[in-house]
Amino acid sequence: MSSVRQTSPSISFASIYLVVVLTILTIAYLVLCHIGGFAPGDILRIIAETSFVAHQNIIFYININRYPLPSYLYIGILAATFGVGLLTKVFAGRIPPQYSDRSLFSHLRYVIVVMIVLINIMQLLGINTFWQNLGGMFTGPGKYENSPLARPKRVAQAYRDALRDQPLSGIFASDMNIDEDPGMLEHRSFAYFLYPVDIRNVYNQERTVWVAYELRDSASKVPEGFKIFYQYDENNLIAIKQP
Question: pTM of the entire structure?
């Protein structure tokens, strides 16, 4: 005699419970996007691309419409918790008692678990994007040599050879914005490969070298009292302070 395997009512309602939580979170997300004036797809892309940042000691917080992303997560968690709690009370008697008799704190725990899963999914997407970008930059013949990270090494090496690796202190000049990436990363890379020529005032001594890197028409911007010592190209040169 064959038996028909039936789905447990509690398992079925657990699925419905999850769908309800995700629906409320989605509604809250759409409302916040509308208030902030952002397209929902753009926000998801930003979160996915920036939720994982490979850095040894920095945590990046995303600001959306002047407010940090965690504040929106808290709003979504609270909205889902109160929404599910209200629905379970409204439909009490028609749903399993283990759901209708739960406290708000119990609903909160389940909503937080769902939110953690969603955040981990976003981080996995961010990790995937990071490795794709890294692979596109360095994988394949000649990729690294033509990447933005290779140019500061080539220019710095040429400067060091011209200065015969003297431990000098220099003034850095560039058109790049070195306060944020990609200019910040390129500047740090250039300073690393330029050592022992110091452009970050580590030696704390008189600066006797003027170092131009990616500075348009650099020859015309050499400061008074300095003379061009070596020119890599029209945007890159070093000048020595005259006695």
Answer: 0.48
